[in-house]
Recover the amino acids of this structure.
């Protein structure tokens, strides 16, 4: 029986010589591309390890202000690897297995959850460029980003219900806040593919653009963010993410304490002088 030991999965993923992730750097931003197009960028052990490493490196790079997350070929990401899921179910049936569900929990938390936390907790802006189907954990990664751009051919695939899984890796949080409980429940139990146009109408994506223009539009957002004063996004992103779950008065206090710090930056002073001069 094939078991699913977390450390063995890490070793298997690290041993892969195939390049599953590509990084393209530009002036002030980078494109992080999942690169297993033949399998619709399924989140195998090798791809996940490379994705997390590349994302951590970009987050640590002081020259990178924004990160575009996208997929190679015709898909964003098909989500979790079914072969790994099969190994997980076999692992739980193994009478000699010692880790139980802990091994599965470690993978979900440290790899899938780890990537979602990198996106959400980093002070860098993450832009999802959803170029095709985004399913399961792949959809969760897109919903975790700060801006979501969708190509016209993109579809959101809520596959978890049909598989017998719950909304995962932050999807339940993202859906209920954007579309409300009833629509989120319908999204889960219905399992219907959501087109890019429908996703925009529901508020699940920011913009829908022609397929051939998706990366150009994503680049323009990267350039726009990179052109902002260095402190702007770094201070605004954690503020905006935090206040979504705060009472109005608490959010107001957060802003009142945070904004005076902006006045201490040279960029703010220079911009005020420039605006006064233009008048």
């Amino acid at each position: 029986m094939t078991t699913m030991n977390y450390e063995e999965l890490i070793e298997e993923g690290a041993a892969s010589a195939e390049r599953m992730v590509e990084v393209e750097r530009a002036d002030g931003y980078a494109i992080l591309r999942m690169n297993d197009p033949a399998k619709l960028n399924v989140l195998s052990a090798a791809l996940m390890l490379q994705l997390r490493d590349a994302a951590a490196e970009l987050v640590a790079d002081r020259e990178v202000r924004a990160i575009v997350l996208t997929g190679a070929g015709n898909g964003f990401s098909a989500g979790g690897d079914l072969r790994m899921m099969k190994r997980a179910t076999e692992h739980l049936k193994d009478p000699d297995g010692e880790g139980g569900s802990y091994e599965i929990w470690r993978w979900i938390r440290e790899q899938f959850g780890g990537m979602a936390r990198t996106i959400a907790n980093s002070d860098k802006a993450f832009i999802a460029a959803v170029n095709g189907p985004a399913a399961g954990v792949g959809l969760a990664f897109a919903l975790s980003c700060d801006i979501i751009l969708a190509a016209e051919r993109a579809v959101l695939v809520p596959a978890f219900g049909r598989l017998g899984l719950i909304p995962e890796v932050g999807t339940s949080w993202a859906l209920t806040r954007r579309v409300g409980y009833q629509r989120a429940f319908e999204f889960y139990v219905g399992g219907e593919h959501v087109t890019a146009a429908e996703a925009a109408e529901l508020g699940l994506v920011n913009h829908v653009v022609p397929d051939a223009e998706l990366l150009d539009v994503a680049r323009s957002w990267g350039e726009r963010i990179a052109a902002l004063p260095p402190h702007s996004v770094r201070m605004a992103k954690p503020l905006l993410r935090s206040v979504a779950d705060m009472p109005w008065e608490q959010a107001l206090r957060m802003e009142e304490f945070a904004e005076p710090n902006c006045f201490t930056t040279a960029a703010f002073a220079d911009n005020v002088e420039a605006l006064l001069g233009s008048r």
The chain has a mean pLDDT of 87. The first strand starts at residue 21 and ends at 25. The chain has two domains: 6-226, 230-278.
